[in-house]
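Key idea: predict the complex, not the pieces.
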Amino acid sequence: MAIIVNLDAVLHDRRMTLTDLADRIGIALANLSILKTGKAKAVRFSTLDAICAALECQPGDILAFDPNLAAADDGEEA
Amino acid sequence: MSRSAAPALAVSHGLLRALVALNLLAGLFILTLLVLSLVAAPFFVKAMGIAPGTLLLGGRLIMLFGLASIPLMHRLLTRLLAIVGTVGAGDPFVPLNAQRLRTCAWALLGLELLHLAVGAASAAGQIDVDWDFTPTGLLAVLLLFVLAQVFAQGARMRDDLEGTV
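Result:
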């Protein structure tokens, strides 16, 4: 997977913990943890909406695409 | 799970377990009768109050069909029990349940065919076993096959949902 989750960095900038964020947006800490560690397979728009509203950021601040990782993935599949 | 579903599940579980035991007992009973009709035919004929000859042969045939239905019924009941178990565990939409439902459908189809065979044997041997044809069983077979497809699709959707935040 070439999608990188930068939630940790954004949280650090905002001086906020994952628990704070979980409390604020009403999503289980376990689920947010899955997102933060890049183990999530999919993100609901409603989750993204809540996170961006709470952290006052753009989806692009949290999610990024790494072409190098994409190339590595293709290599693995071939 | 809703609050009313939990007792219903417990009842289903208990009922199915009882039916599994009853089915095995019925099998044992039929087997005993069949063996008795073979090794002690005169006694069997007298005890059952039936006429010897074709009637005895027809009776044995019906017992044989009954005996064949026991493993099919066992399959059906144990698979159903396993499905109820997964519902209780909170995760019924697994590919294994689709497979179990398909097994149930085939087992029920087998039972329906045996039911038809019993009807044919009772008609041929002129034995009154209070047999009648109803399409309900065959409809249930269809329903089970469709339900198996529904579960297979549900399992795929469940898989998609896994890891969604």
